[in-house]
Amino acid sequence: MTSYAIAEWTLDTVAANYTPENTPAATPVLVDDEDGTVYRITDAGGLEDLGRRYEPDPEEANLVTVDSSPDRQEEPIGTEYDLKVDDAVNVTVEGAHADAGGELSGPSEFESLYEEVRRAILVERTSYPTIGGTVYYAIVPSNPGRPPADEQSNYFAYEVDFGFSAYEGLP
Asked: Crossing angle, helix 2-17 and helix 107-122, to 10 degrees?
């Protein structure tokens, strides 16, 4: 189940590389959308399991949800049983304005939160991570844009897919 392993790797990577000093926004709660588990980032850069009973709301905490979709794409290469594989995870960053009970002062603070989550993932883009037995040579955001900057909004959300590319040699 490589897709689930990539989602777990992404959660661990955000926790390990997230630097609260890089953004005025409160540290987000991480949600594994595969099994519904909610995590808190510890001071040591690890994950503290808050369980599945806690259903976070953007009005309670800033959220980062990781889901292992879209599905794996495989393309045969060469004359052997080798494949070029592309996996992906969807990362959604959410938060609410302080006027609506949330932790954000406005869109600029949300953008800094999004940029820090994005940085925490992309800092590993050249580390050739081995995830689920596959060595990935590229981690690329597939829809790199900017979060919306609506000054009147009470709810902020932005989704980005991170693509993971590799070559797989089959026996």
From this structure: 120
